[in-house]
DNA sequence: GCGACAG
DNA sequence: ATCTTGTCGC
């Protein structure tokens, strides 16, 4: 797919904040999805050479049957450190490289990290979504900001995630008895719909299949194929 | 000033 | 994220 860059990536944190504040004004948290969703994608990031090289893997699955239809991997020098609140500046460049290689344009992208559940309402899912102009959902494994009420242990239960008196996402139990995930709108999607897709893309494990498949193909890079068991 | 802090 | 085996528990 074709990607239109919106800004430079070699930035100071001050410049990064300015970009977050500017682009956050473009985030849409209403449903602006295609009438019928055919493809959902997941991204996985990894680092090599002691963090000097970033690796992004994308998996595109059919929806709702969740079968892998395309994958891609991209590598590039890591140009930004990991700083809570600025994850997108470290990971998005390589993700864009991987997305650019795709033949299929995903209808929704599930990201590893927060959407609007962010100090400036502009987590990695928002940043990626605004740049590629595709609906995105943030599905994080841990909390960045916000508080919530106790969550029931049953799969499918959720509680709103509140930050500064506002609902910025939800804590969602994707598997009974397992640690919950944090779901928030990235771009062009509402919270209820984001929760819905996050759950529909999650079958047997805590994380969405999209993310898990991307992780699987990334780890299998350059290795001799092994018979599954 | 003192903690908290996605991956 | 990454370094890493076996082990505790449902």
From TrEMBL:
Q: Which UniProt keywords apply?
A: Cytoplasm, DNA damage, DNA repair, Endonuclease, Hydrolase, Magnesium, Metal-binding, Nuclease
Which InterPro entries would you find in this protein's record? Endonuclease-V
Molecular function terms, GO-annotated: deoxyribonuclease V activity; magnesium ion binding; RNA endonuclease activity producing 5'-phosphomonoesters, hydrolytic mechanism; single-stranded RNA binding
Can you tell me which residues bind Mg(2+)?
A: 44, 112
User: Please, which domain of life does this record's source organism belong to?
Assistant: Bacteria
Give compartment(s). Cytoplasm
Query: What cofactor is needed?
Result: Mg(2+)
The catalytic activity, as recorded, is: Endonucleolytic cleavage at apurinic or apyrimidinic sites to products with a 5'-phosphate
This entry carries the following GO cellular component terms, namely: cytoplasm
Biological process (GO) annotations?
A: DNA repair
Mind telling me which Gene3D superfamilies this protein's record contains? archaeoglobus fulgidus dsm 4304 superfamily (3.30.2170.10)
Transmembrane intervals? none
Among CDD domains, the record links this protein to: Endonuclease_V
Reported EC number(s) for this entry are 3.1.21.7
User: Which Pfam families does this one have?
Assistant: Endonuclease_5 (PF04493)
Site features described as Interaction with target DNA, chain residue numbers: 82
Known role: DNA repair enzyme involved in the repair of deaminated bases. Selectively cleaves double-stranded DNA at the second phosphodiester bond 3' to a deoxyinosine leaving behind the intact lesion on the nicked DNA.
Matches recorded under NCBIfam families: PRK11617.1 (NF008629)
The record, for HAMAP family, names: Endonuclease_5
Family membership: Belongs to the endonuclease V family.
Q: Which PANTHER family match?
A: ENDONUCLEASE V
Q: What is this protein called?
A: Endonuclease V
Please tell me the species this chain comes from. Answer: Dulcicalothrix desertica PCC 7102
What gene is this protein translated from?
A: nfi
């Amino acid at each position: 797919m074709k990607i239109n860059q919106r800004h430079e990536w070699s930035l100071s944190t001050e410049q990064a904040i300015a970009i977050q504040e500017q682009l956050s004004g473009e985030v849409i948290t209403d449903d602006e999805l295609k009438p019928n969703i055919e493809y959902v994608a997941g991204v996985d990031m990894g680092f090599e050479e002691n963090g000097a090289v970033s690796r992004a893997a994308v998996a595109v699955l059919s929806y709702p049957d969740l079968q892998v239809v395309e994958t891609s991997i991209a590598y590039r020098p890591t140009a930004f450190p990991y700083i809570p609140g600025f994850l997108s500046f470290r990971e998005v460049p390589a993700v864009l490289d991987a997305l650019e290689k795709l033949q299929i344009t995903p209808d929704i992208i599930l990201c590893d990290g927060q959407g609007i559940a962010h100090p400036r309402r502009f987590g990695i899912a928002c940043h990626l979504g605004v740049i590629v102009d595709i609906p995105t959902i943030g599905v994080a494994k841990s909390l960045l900001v916000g508080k919530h009420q106790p969550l029931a242990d049953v799969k499918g239960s959720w509680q709103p995630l509140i930050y500064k008196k506002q609902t910025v996402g939800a804590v969602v139990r994707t598997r009974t008895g397992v640690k919950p995930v944090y779901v928030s709108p990235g771009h062009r999607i509402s919270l209820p719909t984001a929760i819905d897709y996050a759950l529909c893309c999650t079958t047997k494990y805590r994380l969405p299949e999209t993310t898990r498949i991307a992780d699987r193909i990334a780890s299998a890079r350059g290795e001799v194929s092994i018979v599954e068991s």
